[in-house]
Amino acid sequence: MTGRKWTIEEKLAIVLEGLKGQTPISEICREHQVSQTQFYKWRDRFLEAGKKGLEGKTDFSGESSLRQEVERLQKLVGKQALQIDILKKTEEIMSRR
Question: What's 2's DSSP letter?
């Protein structure tokens, strides 16, 4: 099929139509010009996200890993700022001699 970009709303509508079971998946895919393989990928991701949501795992975007990376980088910047201050003070002391 085509290499077009689908919005989240379009994907959701297609997956929900398929989950209703009123129309064969092949027909839905033909109507929306999406491959059955792609449909089943979307469906599986949708169902997995729903499962995580019911388990209370609502971090679908990797937000916690991004937060951890930000904290790591903030610590690194803090250490570097401290090292710069130490080097400046050392330079001041050495230049007085």
Answer: -
Amino acid at 6: W
Q: Which two tokens stand for residue 3?
A: 């290499």
The distance between the two most distant Cα atoms of the chain, rounded to a whole number of Å, is: 87
Whether 35 and 1 have beta carbons less than 8 Å apart is answered as yes
Q: How much is the pTM?
A: 0.55
DSSP state of 57: -
Asked if 17 contacts 28 with a C-beta cutoff of 8 angstroms, the reply is yes
Q: Which runs of consecutive H residues, i.e. helices, occur in 5-60?
A: 8-20, 25-32, 36-55
Query: What's the CA gap between 64 and 77, in Å, rounded?
Result: 20
Q: Which amino acid, 50?
A: G
Tokens read off for 90: 């050392």
> Is the CB of residue 18 less than 8 Å from the CB of residue 42?
no
Please report the pLDDT score of residue 58 as a whole number. 63
On whether the CB atoms of residues 40 and 46 are closer than 8 A, the answer is: no
